[in-house]
């Protein structure tokens, strides 16, 4: 038999309000299809908790792109217009077979995100946006496709 009211939040309706007020789901945003130009700032969402930190960010693509010339996509996540990164996540194209890739793990052509500890603080109502920057020197054999950025938020309780 479960123990009612055990744990970090009180039971009943008050417990539900406490949980809702202290959690924030991860945010994600995608560009659908091939990406051939840098995007402007695109809204990802708004912070709904009192305060917290962005603790992780990842970039993924369904197609890395194939080209013998420079080809990459980089993500920038901003809190009210200010970047959270000291190093932005980036996925580079390949010279042969493409396929998907993610910055969750290190690898060839992958730059993992480094989040600045003084610029990752969020507060209720902050606007989160993203920008995808595409770098290319010529029309590639295959374009980078479907970039998606995901951020993990850690509320301050």
Biggest pleated sheet: 6 strands, antiparallel
Question: Which regions are unreliable across 5 or more consecutive residues at pLDDT < 50?
Answer: none
Share of helical residues:
under 10%
Rg value: 19 Å
Multimerization status: single chain
- The ordered string of helix (H) and strand (E) elements is HEEEEEEEEEEEEE
Give the distance, in angstroms, between the N- and C-terminal Cα atoms. Answer: 29 Å
Helix-and-strand structural type: mainly beta
Tally of strands: 13
Give the overall shape.
elongated
CATH-scheme architecture: Sandwich
- The CATH topology label is Jelly Rolls
The count of helical stretches stands at: 1
As a percent range, the share of strand residues is: 35-45%
Under the CATH scheme, which class?
Mainly Beta
Explained architecture:
It is elongated and about 50 Å long. Helices cover 6% and strands 41% of the residues. The model has no long low-confidence stretch (mean pLDDT 87). The chain is built from one helix and 13 strands; from the N terminus they run αβββββββββββββ. It has one helix at 12-21, and strands spanning 27-30, 42-46, 51-61, 71-79, 82-83, 85-87, 90-92, 101-102, 110-111, 114-115, 121-123, 127-136, 148-155. The strands form three sheets. Strands 2, 4, 5, 7, 9 and 12 form a six-stranded antiparallel sheet that branches. Strands 1, 3, 8, 11 and 13 form a five-stranded antiparallel sheet that branches. It has one domain (26-155): Jelly Rolls, CATH 2.60.120. The protein is mainly beta and 157 residues long.
């Amino acid at each position: 038999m479960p123990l009612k009211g055990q744990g970090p939040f009180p039971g009943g309706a008050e417990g539900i309000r406490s949980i809702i007020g202290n959690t924030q789901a991860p945010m994600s945003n995608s560009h659908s299809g091939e990406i051939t130009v840098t995007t402007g700032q695109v809204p990802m969402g708004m912070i709904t908790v009192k305060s917290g930190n962005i603790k992780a960010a990842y970039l993924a693509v369904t197609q890395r792109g194939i080209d013998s010339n420079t080809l990459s996509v980089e993500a920038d996540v901003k809190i009210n217009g200010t970047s959270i990164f000291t190093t932005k996540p980036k996925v580079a194209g390949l010279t042969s077979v493409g396929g998907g890739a993610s910055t969750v793990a290190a690898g060839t052509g992958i730059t993992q995100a480094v989040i600045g500890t003084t610029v990752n603080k969020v507060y209720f109502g902050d606007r989160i946006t993203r920008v995808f920057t595409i770098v290319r020197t010529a029309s590639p054999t295959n374009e980078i496709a479907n970039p998606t950025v995901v951020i993990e938020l850690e509320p301050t309780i």
